[in-house]
Amino acid sequence: MIRLRTLAPSEELAYLKEIHGEDSSRLFSVLIGHFEVLQSRAQMLLSLIAICLTITGFSGPQIAQSGPTAQTLLAVGLSFVLSAALLLVMGPLQLRWGTQRRAETVDESLVALIERRNGRTQRYHVASVVLVIGLSGYMGSLLTFMMGL
């Protein structure tokens, strides 16, 4: 079995050069494509959050009136869902242009883009986990409501 290792940003740039050659514009385009993937995935999660909040607007008060357990689970769930939205807006959905900043050399600028992409990817993963926790609390409140507990 072949083992893959995680590359440091400078190693990743060297690997990208090995794959795509020394063409800086090509390498820049590849990295910008990574940001586009992050953006679309973050937007998908934000859409899921919007659906959750919309449904809660209609059924939330009725669920909350069913008892303290449902009330608590709903409040906790929605808190996590809103936290996930904040993480997405402050992370992967943050608007920064790839050419807005530069380092001394093109290679250093590309490494900085890789580092920024990695940070946003990490925030995307954290937001995903927080969202799942929030949706679990929300579903727990819904199940409590439906079972009459």
Note down, in words, how this protein is organized.
The protein is an all-alpha fold. The protein has one domain. It is 79% helix and 0% strand. The protein contains 4 helices and no strands. It has helices spanning 9-20, 24-64, 68-90, 106-147. Helix 1 (9-20) packs across helix 4 (106-147) and helix 2 (24-64) packs antiparallel against helix 3. The longest helix is centred in the last third of the chain and has 42 residues, at 106-147. The chain is elongated. The mean pLDDT is 91.
Apparent shape: elongated
Fraction of residues in helix: over 70%
- Integer tally of domains: 1
Distance between the termini: 50 Å
Order of helices and strands, N to C?
Answer: HHHH
- How many beta strands in the DSSP annotation? 0
**What ranges have pLDDT less than 50 throughout 5 or more consecutive residues?**
none
Over all CA atoms, what is the radius of gyration?
21 Å
Structural class call reads mainly alpha
Brief summary of the model shown:
The protein has 149 residues and is mostly helical. It is 79% helix and 0% strand.
List keywords for this structure.
single chain; 149 residues; 79% helix; 0% strand; mainly alpha
Question: In terms of topology, how is this protein built?
Answer:
Layout: H1 9-20, H2 24-64, H3 68-90, H4 106-147
